[in-house]
Amino acid sequence: MTMLTTLRRIATLGLATLGFALPAAATTYSIDYSDLWYNNPPESQAGWGINVSQQNEVLFATMFVYGPNNQPTWYVASNMAPTGGNAFGGPLYSFTGPYFGAAWTGVSPPSQAGNINIVFNSATTGTLTYNVGGTSVTKQIVRQTWRNDNLTGHYIGGTTGLGSQCGGNGGILIHGELDVTHANPAITMQVRFVNSVGQQGTCNYSGSYSQVGSMGAINGGTYNCTIGGQQNAITGNFSIAELQNNRNGITGRITATTQFCSYAGFFGGIKDVF
Question: What would the DSSP string read from start to end of the chain?
Fold first, then answer.
């Protein structure tokens, strides 16, 4: 028996209503806010922005703006710590250094120019507040998008979720082969599995993909399943948020409803090399 067959045998019978997959996000602390952000609505103030890189609970931000002399100016926030739910803040620094065409002699000691705070309103939007030299600025920001990912590929994974009236323990656990066909904005996903009594099953999902920065989403999704050659009575709707894609696989958070239950959980898949 192959490893893939073993994974299939683990799939549960009555709960085979969804078939995605499941690793963790890029950061274990929160939504991964790493991205290039700028003024919201998009393109309303093109030409300035803020780069955010997140590791665990700390954000490192570099902000490129224009100074009082209208010349480009960079500020750095190297240790933005949590200040509340989905909020981060810390000191804002400025630096000077040698001319790039000359020998490297190091930068000047950091000089605190002010403070910076970001409160993220959602996975893709936030409110930026900072002050420099007695001037305070507040801006609505959004992830900057220039190219959508394509999730087309073959994966191995499953979905986990908890809900009400979704089975004996209220849980969803499904493993199988996942094929994704993505021609933006349309995305279809087919999961093939074998349930706990040896019946082969297929679930088909379709929805509309959207992306803001590096963060994708699927909305307006519907799905249906066939188990043991028979159309399953359970059909439903689903959405996926915080959807991230890299060369190793895909991850996201899923919510779904059927005629009998609603549940929320995690979705993801690792690339299938076979």
Answer: --HHHHHHHTS-STTTT--------S-SSSS---EEEEESSTTTTTT-EEEEEEETTEEEEEEEEE-TTS-EEEEEEEEEEEEETTEEEEEEEE-----TTS----PPPPEEEEEEEEEESSSSEEEEEEEETTEEEEEEEEE--S------EEEEEEEEEEEESSSTTSEEEEEEEEEEEEETTEEEEEEEEE-TTS-EEEEEEEEEEEEETTEEEEEEEEEEEEETTEEEEEEEEEEEEEEEEETTEEEEEEEEEESS-EEEEEEEEEEP--
